[in-house]
Amino acid sequence: MAMNTGGRLVAGSHNRNEFVLINADEIGRIKAVHELSGQICQICGDEVEIINEEPFVACNECAFPVCRTCYEYERKEGSQACPQCKTRYKRIKGFARVEGDEDEDGSVYGGLSGSATTSGHDSSQGIDIPLLTYGEEYAEIAHNQSAIIVPLFASNVNGVHSNPPGTAAPPVHPRPMAPEKDLAVYGYGSVAWKDRMEEWRRRQNEKLQVVQHQGANGDDFDGGNFGADLPMMDEGRQPLSRKLPIASSRINPYRMVIILRLAVLGLFFHYRILHPVPGAYGLWMTSVICEIWFATSWILDQFPKWYPIERETYLDRLSLRYEKEGKPSELADVDVFVSTVDPMKEPPLITANTVLSILASDYPVDKVSCYMSDDGAAMLTFEALSETSEFARKWVPFSKKFNIEPRAPEWYFCQKIDYLKNKVHPSFVRERRAMKREYEEFKVRINRLVAMAEKVPEEGWTMQDGTPWPGNNVQDHPGMIQVFLGHEGVCDIEGNELPRLVYVSREKRPGFEHHKKAGAMNSLIRVSAVLSNAPYLLNVDCDHYINNSKALREAMCFLMDPTSGKKVCYVQFPQRFDGIDHHDRYSNRNVVFFDINMKGLDGLQGPIYVGTGCVFRRQALYGFDAPTKKKAPSKTCNCWPKWCCLCCGARKSKKGKAKRDKKSKHKEASKQVHALETIEEEINISQDKLEKKFGQSPVFVASTLGMPNSISSTSLLKEAIHVISCGYEDKTEWGKEVGWIYGSVTEDILTGFKMHCHGWRSVYCMPKRPAFKGSAPINLSDRLHQVLRWALGSVEIFLSKHCPIWYGYGGGLKWLERFSYINSVVYPWTSIPLLVYCTLPAICLLTGKFIVPEISNYAGIIFIALFITIAVTGILEMQWGGVGIDDWWRNEQFWVIGGVSSHFFALFQGLLKVLAGVSTNFTVTSKGGDEDGGFAELYLFKWTSLLIPPTTLLIINIVGVVVGVADAVNNGYDSWGPLFGRLFFAIWVIMHLYPFLKGLMGKQEGVPTVIIIWSILLSSILTLVWVRINPFVSRDGPVLEICGLNCDD
Hints:
Elements: E1 10-13, E2 18-21, E3 50-51, E4 54-55, H1 68-77, H2 191-207, E5 241-245, H3 248-274, H4 281-302, E6 309-313, H5 315-322, E7 334-340, H6 348-359, E8 368-374, H7 379-402, H8 409-414, H9 428-453, E9 479-485, E10 500-505, H10 516-531, E11 536-541, E12 545-546, H11 551-559, E13 568-572, E14 576-578, H12 591-602, E15 614-617, H13 618-621, H14 642-648, H15 650-671, H16 675-694, H17 698-704, H18 713-723, H19 747-757, E16 761-764, E17 772-775, H20 780-798, H21 815-826, H22 831-847, H23 857-881, H24 885-900, H25 902-916, H26 948-971, H27 976-992, H28 994-1002, H29 1009-1029
Parallel strand pairs: 7-8, 7-11, 8-10, 13-16, 14-17
Antiparallel strand pairs: 1-2, 1-9, 3-4, 5-6, 9-10, 11-15, 12-17, 13-15
């Protein structure tokens, strides 16, 4: 429903019975008018098409009035015969052939009463016509029950077209009927038939597209314009997307190497367990435990990549199917959610660019609604969004007129490319310069707002009309809604309609749990359902702008595909980032995960939800199960050998048949009598259940069922304020089974996991031009804090009832998909064995011991085979995933850096939070570009305790290398052989920590002194304690051996 709030803010609290519409104008109403005309189809009740000023005729024997849709349905999935005269339908030219058409001499030419040829079939043959249930069998209808009857009007001469003069009228064969039964029982005219027919028509409208076909010379079929309505036989009826499996020449060797690596691992552990180190039993046992954990973690990570696939979309087919020439677009509506909290850490200019890219996307403007969630109730965000809405009136028509990419002005004007390429419009240069100046003035206004917001007045902020800002108290304020764009009277500078832009700040009160981002997203689900109720939702972070203006169309190729889109709960796009150095020292791009792991999951049940750049199906977020295929009919005597039926089930079948006949008669007798009562009871029961599930808002509950609301706009605004009140979710299933799931700071993993448990599948879409781009953390400290938050969420899930190890069995979750979810919540626990394993090299070098005994030839072959299989697995993954070796190696390095720092701290924070109730607030990652240029802050370290463990590991391993080499130099040539294994072990750790080391060495003046002091102190304490305790050396004292020289002589 379009809403006109006069450009004013709506604020209120449902619990306090407050509702304020500040200086609002009258709210208009929109009325819909539906007109029908034409001859009525006697099957579905729809009008019969008019072709060449003549009605469409399906049957050339009796001219029984049937529309084109019912005719095609009957030929494809029904009896292929006329309901009145039982004559088999002839194929009308332009329709697809079906089984049996090959026996005909020709096709009817045109489907018109004046040009129809007489059928040569003898209609007196006994044709067994099954019940029309569009290919599905219903248990309550007997298999021999007649479905097609002669309607009452068929006997009337006026209801049948006359035959041409001189042609004998063919005999009419009525169907046998039991006079004591209602006619509706047989199929046509019944409520069940109409419902099935409407469902089939809806499916056909999704599958078919009628377009205009014109010949090279302008000739149409039969000399007329019948070809304009021919169903598309090529592009319009083709799938909107397709899977592209990885070439067998790449994937088969990859799978073979995985199996070989498993075999080598078995031999490796067989050797390691059966060959302990006599002088260092503790070192040996510790290393074996760590290696077993690493192997288990590798299995959980590896096997979900067994079936990697890629996908390809066809945007032209989407347009042919849903955007008919001369008709309104039939593409589905999309509600876009943008979330922000703190404008000081998430700059308003970045958020404004995200909003502008959404408003300018290549999608029908009347089908896009953008909802901005301000969870910090900051007036700076509100004012910046107001400025953004004004600038959008100029930016949106400019970007669409010249088809520019990307449509975020900050990134469009700063890209270093030839912006004149493929531009032919004579005014492009002039308008681009003018638009760039407009944007620079817009940036100045935003910067002015930011500067003003740095100093908050003592009395709080005041709006332009003198009204106090309702969100002055961040933790105690009413809900706020304002529609900036999308209401009457607000158009762009060219007079065109703009997408809807709505500001939302949910109510917050002390004593209520607000659930951070997940709670804000659930508030957006409800308020968008009340205002626009689009069937699909796009969720983006405030710093993730739309880089590809056709991103929404890419998602619709999967969600709106009539054949494969019904079970798709969301379409996930990969994350791509701007402002990252060429070498990507801290693996900000995370290419291995997005280009390898996610492709592997897409071949199973779909990728996991990563928190942004994802288009959802609204019904899936409501906690509904995925649509399931009806079970095939149970096996009967027709599908088993006769001797089996005679031996096993003869007596049972007779009794069972008698019982079924009795039950079916009882059902048929009482079905129509109790139909209305049953429907009323079910509606009342379901209404109560829905209110307990979704909350006490009748408007929202009605929207979950797809029912249009007919209330006034003022009441609609009150309902919108109601659904974002702080107590609305009490005693409901929000956050438990509905919407974004609560219980973890990484609500994205939980939300996607619950959907997959309900039987849905997801899709991974990787268009050639990245759909979304965002801002990555600038320095290592922010990056580690980001990884800390992700790992903390995984620990919370692991310690909750939703842990994939024990949750969701019996649902629709596939086993390999479960492996992936288990790996996503178990990986923080790897930090303990990883931290211990990275300490072992230094211990070995300081003590002269090692984790393996003297290596034999057999052991050497096993170790070499293991290293080779590890390397080959990585190489083949890079090959089919399209990942460079630099990205793969940076990912391996940061896995170690993050594992020994962020994951380790997250593990203890999660244990404290879950077991002891000590809550820790995560730090919002700073968003912003590299304004100074040259990546000035790339190696700038901010103080954080996360930097201590990797620095400590670096120092003790470097000290161990120095001590080991010095010892070898002092002891001579024989000591160099055993040293190589220990040196290789230590260098392996140092190489993985090299980005961290380079940051320390490259920006020494920026390293906090406390980090160096703490690291040296911890290293010294560890070394002294080791020398004092040394648990891996025998406590019986030094081992004395008899010298070979006789000293007495």
